[in-house]
Amino acid sequence: IAAYAPYIFVSCTGGQWTDNYGNSEDIPGQIQMRDIDDMSLIQTFEFNTFSHPWHIDVSLSENKVFVALAGDVQENSGISCLEFGQENGEYFLNELWRNTNSSYGTMHGITISSDGQYVYVSGRTDGKIYKFDSLTGVELDSFEIVDIGGTRMGGIAISQKASCGSGSCCD
What we know:
Elements: E1 2-4, E2 7-12, E3 15-18, E4 24-27, E5 30-35, E6 41-46, E7 53-58, E8 64-69, E9 78-87, E10 90-100, E11 107-112, E12 118-123, E13 128-133, E14 139-144
Antiparallel strand pairs: 1-2, 2-5, 3-4, 5-6, 7-8, 8-9, 9-10, 11-12, 12-13, 13-14
């Protein structure tokens, strides 16, 4: 869940589900845009059944939502950028770009740099942190943090640098 007033964004993993009778149903992954006051559904973006959108983060400088896609067995794992807003009285939630790669290790946590230029994503099964260009989705670098094994990468966050000014902690 991520919020950017007046909206709240929710990821819904989706996938292939089977009931107690053996009937299966393919449910696409979704990002839902909701009104932050009454939680009414405003707009939905659907991914494919096996993309498994996981964690999300909202840019503070642009109307964009970045989505970590867990994927399914070495497919569809990656990152997506959605643009949101309202134009001519109509709400929209559209995909600007997507970068998936079979080498990504189940993308999990996601965060945006304070200047909005980069998106960082943790690979749950490969122990890496990936750095992406926020405008294009191009992978710029990756860093191995944890050797593959019992330890799994989870969430990720960036501390924000304090700005110095009148009355700040820098005085």
